[in-house]
Amino acid sequence: MPGLHDPLMIVTDLDGSLLDHHTYSWQPAQPWLDRLKQHQIPLVICSSKTASEIIPLQQQLGISGAPFIAENGALVQLDSANGDTVRHHAGKDYSEICHCLRRLRQQYQFRFSGFADFTDKEVADITGLSVSDAALARRREASESLVWRDSEEQFSAFRDALDAEGFSLTQGGRFWHVMAKGSGKGAALAWLLQSSPAHQLQRFITVGLGDGPNDAPMLDSVDYAVVIKGHSKTPIVLSRADRLNIYETRHSGPDGWVEGLDYFIAQE
């Protein structure tokens, strides 16, 4: 079991994990956040949220400048060896994705609504975010979030049509996410570690925490995986065989987040 003096990296989902699913509060996790900061352990946000949402949240959490993974892995940001900010962008940009979705919707009469179709107020009503925070959620760069309103048969046809266009579908806590095929939280974390100057000097021991099906690729690729009790009807299915390095929490949200770190990280 790793300790606080080991070269740890914590990789965390936000909604339903570090942040409460309903209130977006992280207060139960504050003692652990302070501990990580004290021991200079990097906390990497790995979320479906946009960069515009993550950067101010990093400021509130006291981790400004830390690497992060946004839009379910479609976007990665980190600082390079010379201190420049590097943005890794998987696949096509947002306008190209939205153009493709409009074309498919018209061609096949699919019924769905994406963030490009919603107003800030409508996104706020769906998510419980403030209108100003909903505006940040709509500042997408490399993926689209949508609500499916059609049949399962049409959904299967939609997935096939996206596949033919070079896109994939990922299920999050509230929305389906359309992004470039081959991208995702696991691929984004692999790119981040490979590109991180600090990781090249000393290999990090990674602890990942998540509560939704879209977290599975990330949880499969970390050394220790915390599956937080979630609200999704679809269970998290991990493909890794090392069951001793997987912990499923009894609590949800930030309480489960704390429970998972308590379980895997030895404290002096």
From TrEMBL:
Keywords: Hydrolase, Magnesium, Metal-binding. One of its GO terms (cellular component) is cytosol. GO terms for biological process: mannosylglycerate biosynthetic process. InterPro entries: HAD-like_sf, HAD-SF-IIB-MPGP, HAD-SF_hydro_IIB, HAD_sf. One of its GO terms (molecular function) is mannosyl-3-phosphoglycerate phosphatase activity. Gene3D superfamilies: HAD superfamily/HAD-like (3.40.50.1000), Putative mannosyl-3-phosphoglycerate phosphatase, domain 2 (3.30.980.20). This is Mannosyl-3-phosphoglycerate phosphatase. It comes from Winslowiella iniecta.
